[in-house]
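User: two proteins, same treatment. go.

Assistant:
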Amino acid sequence: MSAPATAPASAKQSTMVPFAPGDILLGATDLNNPADDHAGDGRIFQFDKNFHLKGVLYTTGTTHLVKGLTFGPDGLLWAFDSAEHAVIFVDPKTGKQVDPKHKFPAKPWSSAFFDKAGNTYIHEHLNGTPDMVPEKYRGMTRLVPGSNRVGDGKVYKYSPDDKLLDTYDTETSTSFAGYLGVTSCVLHRSEEHTSELQS
């Protein structure tokens, strides 16, 4: 049985509108690529505070799971596609995806948080070498440029003008998948330590 034909994301209508107080935003990639069960049209749903659907944004520059939604100190909504090494930005004033406002190296980013000084702590979703990746995903998993690794599972601290300030090692297990790093991370309100999570 063949998979149903689906329109490419570029042919789908984005209906996201300017954000309002109480809006709920949810990354929900349409997994419509029969060759890869983690791939498909990236999208972000927008609901009002009563969970009524207001719109959807079909993301560009993504091919896999759109995740890690968070608001940056620049006021933009940030989201991540670790397979594409992509950080995408959405303008709350228009509900539209905008050109990258920050430049980070190509790594499998999963999420970010920000301290009171406006520094960015951005996290690597993957950790390991290609042989640690399950065979069915190997051909679809990128190497970090200039390395023989899919990622290092670290947390990186960048200044507001995108200068690398520090790198933090994390304790990650091989996980059930064999190659996951930091899938999400939070900063304690004291800004003295973080909690890294692996799903």
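Protein 2:
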Amino acid sequence: PELIRLYTIWEEYNVFPVYLDSGTEPELSWALSIMERSLASTEPDPQVLNYYAWTLAERGLHPERAVELARQALDLAPDDHNIMDTLAEALFRSGDADSAIQWELKALSLDPDNQFYQSQLARFRGEEEE
């Protein structure tokens, strides 16, 4: 049982992103099955949900699922600015820039000196420097 537990953790953080980055089938399907199996096997954890939401969102994969996972994470940890940033990224990738901006502003209100959040906000507003 301990080896299975350790393999499952290793698979989530090492195999999942590699399979996503392959860009090919059946690896993409396998990656999603790793994620869904992980999410089904434990009680909802905001950090795990956020990890999967961010990993999908930053790659532009399954943006609706990324939004769903980020919202679930935020329901469990409503004051977590990192999850707000993840939700903003997922919303932006799903085509909802206005909502992304609002969530990034909320994240910045909790961590106003965060340079990454500031750059995210600029990107969502279309103000990125080229």
